[in-house]
Amino acid sequence: MLSQHLYMPIQLHDLHRLNSIAVLFFLVTIVLMALAIVTPRGQDVFWINSHHSFFGDTFFSIVTNAGDGILILPVFIIFLFVRFHLSAILLVSSAITGVLVSIFKQWLLSAALRPTRVLDIDVLHFVPGIKVHATHSFPSGHTATAFALAFVLALIFNRKHMTVLFLFIALAVGTSRIYLLQHFLQDVAAGAYMGVMSVIFSILILDRFRNQAFLKSRLVFGKQKILVRPIDSSLN
Predict the structure, then answer these.
(1) How far is CA 142 from the centre of its chain?
(2) 29, 118, 130, 147: which is deepest, by most CB within 10 A?
(3) Residue 229 forms beta bridges with which residues?
(4) Do the domain assignments include residue 234?
């Protein structure tokens, strides 16, 4: 059974819950951006990609899929049965992330080259079965999606071990994008920042509608149909 705190809304007045997790995610993005600044472009790819192995090929080929958006829909549907407010945060943050990434990839920096178009491919390790792209490098959409989803889940579960787990998966997705020769560290750092900021913006937007009864409802299974039912006010 889902514990009671999963039914609690994520709102601005819940500062301790929001700030503690937000600070952790922001610190991680700051570290990533700092590393991207001090590391010569390409050295990050050479270093991570050179430490390849059968396990690395398999692990990163699988974990990278956590950032392509396939998990958003099932998680969204699950949270419809918990609280509409949670699904709304996931939906709005995903939309913001998608718009931000598209603006940079399709218009502002559409010509940004990926590692294989910049570095010497003779010294790079290509993972079998992985299609390596050539352009639209900045930012990493997979990393943005992974960090946004991880941040939302960390806020919802509000447990230290779960926060660490979600953050580890998001970092693994970011690392996979470099390992698989899809992005530079600067792309990954920017994607992580956009993902985290998209969640913050979604909370700010939805906080304006916090008293809406609809957001305090959830889906429940009735006899041969699914019903919308308000959540017990004692859980608000």
Answers:
(1) 7
(2) 147
(3) 218
(4) no
- With a cut of 50, which residues of the chain have pLDDT below it? 1-9, 12-13, 15-16, 233-235
pLDDT reported for residue 210: 74
Answer whether residue 155 is part of any domain: yes
227: β partners = 220
Span 165-185, pLDDT tens digits: 999 999 999 999 999 999 999
d(CA 219, CA 83): 8
Query: Is there a domain that residue 22 lies in?
Result: yes
Is 2 inside a domain boundary?
Answer: no
Contacts of 109 (CB under 8 A, 6+ apart): 136, 137, 138
Q: 149: domain CATH number?
A: 1.20.144
Q: Show the domain range for 207.
A: 13-217
Query: Would you tell me how many other CB atoms lie within 10 Å of the CB of residue 217?
Result: 17
Structure tokens at 86: 């949670």
Look at the chain and report how many structural domains it folds into.
1
The pLDDT value recorded for residue 82 is: 83
Token pair of 224 as six digits:
């041969």
**Contact assessment for residue 33 and residue 218, using Cβ atoms and an 8 Å cutoff:** no
